[in-house]
Model the fold of this input.
Amino acid sequence: MFKIERFILPSEENADKWISFTRDTLVRGKGFLFVAKNGNKPIGFCTSSIFEMPLEASELMGSINDLYVLPEFRGRGIGRKLVAESLKKLKAQGVNTARLNVLKENRAAVKLYRKLGFKIYNYGMEKTLEEF
Ligand SMILES: CC(C)(COP(=O)(O)OP(=O)(O)OC[C@H]1O[C@@H](n2cnc3c(N)ncnc32)[C@H](O)[C@@H]1OP(=O)(O)O)[C@@H](O)C(=O)NCCC(=O)NCCS
Done:
């Protein structure tokens, strides 16, 4: 998350805030967490959630929020399985479409998501405003 939103400071405090925010969506039944384990040891996880909007919507949208696999367990299909299970869970909750954000340089993740059928639907653009 700190890399995707580079203006958010990678502080302990922010990490704690993010964890509380994620926990809150889980508690309210709007978020889901899948953990991959090797024995009892967690080796990867994926969080997802249902979009919560104040506006009326024609369909339920969901998102893949965080995905991580420990380096020594990568390349074995764990990341793909975590995302696939999260998508199944979202679908079971009535979600029609899932979205996610990924840095375009993150080739491993982009390839994984493409293999699962994700396509670009939007280009995020930015510009520094020094010259204005
Ligand atoms: C991205 C990440 C979760 C992938 O986890 P993983 O368990 O290694 O992925 P999988 O083994 O399930 O790979 C699934 C597919 O993704 C692609 N892929 C995964 N790692 C790749 C790599 N290093 N290079 C190229 N393609 C890769 C492959 O197409 C692979 O399918 P294939 O094995 O049939 O070729 C893992 O690298 C990670 O934790 N990275 C750091 C955190 C991160 O970037 N998270 C995503 C944020 S949006």
The CA atoms of residues 101 and 124 lie 10 Å apart.
